[in-house]
Task: structure prediction
Amino acid sequence: MLLAIDVGNTETVVGLYALTPDERANLPSDEVAFGIGTENEPSDGLTHHWRLSTVPTRTPDEYAVLLTQILDLEGIDIAAAVDGIAVSSSVPSVTAELRQMASRWLRDVPCVVLGPGVKSGMPVLYDSPKDVGADRVANAVGAYELFGGPCVVVDLGTATTFDAISAAGEYLGGAITPGVAISLEALFQHAAALRRVELVPPRDVIGRSTAESIQSGVLYGFAAQVDGLCRRFVAELGPATVIATGGLSELVAPYCEAVDHIEPWLTLHGLRVVYERNVPRAAGGSAAGGHGEPAGADAPSRGARAGRGSR
Result:
């Protein structure tokens, strides 16, 4: 099975993929907690997923313990089950720790770290391709594999990123704005009279209390930002599919008019695709890259699957 790890600035998402029919058949039964967090239809072999806090001070041994324990909660032995690792990371110090963890505790397992030298299958047309974060490349690869192009990926995380992919499967560029959480943190730090509120939909757009006013501003304000930027992207790209992902996608995207699909595990899906392009299952080879972002090579296969993850 493939262990896919997406390290963000705030949270780390871990997914476990059964890549072959035999691996799916050998999964534990429902009686041993199979499927925690898989209420919706699994995405292309994604059987389990977990969301953890990103802690840059964790050591390689601590990562080994943590991953072993969360798989053990599902009745899965990491040493016996995991035969591949794929990593994208926005935090260089964590990238280094995960490399050391893999080399010490899972030394015989192929490990692909999305970065220079790793075949993404997607040409990156940024002025400086190395400036594109690995998570953005993984999102672009996953979106093009699922929906074809042109498409726009909106990742609602610590930052809100917008990425454009051409009809030919090229990463064109994008936009970056402050995310929901850091925008709220700045608001609370600089406005002494405002207190933190739970991020839930208010009764109406026009808030009848300070808490509801903040909730309205966050949900409808960020939804309007997404819609506005997507309209400008589409004006340059032409008609395009818009996919929302990230930790806050399921909160904000339902209020967006421009979003066609919500795929919360899009980055993991892109990692799975990149892994398979670098480690052929039949060959059982291994690959490893740096902690930056891949230089594009071949055009990826297109698998626009209408209706998956749609609102």
Observations:
- The first strand starts at residue 2 and ends at 7.
- The domain at 129-266 is CATH 3.30.420.40 (Nucleotidyltransferase; domain 5).
- The longest helix spans residues 210-237.
- The chain has two domains: 2-119+267-278, 129-266.
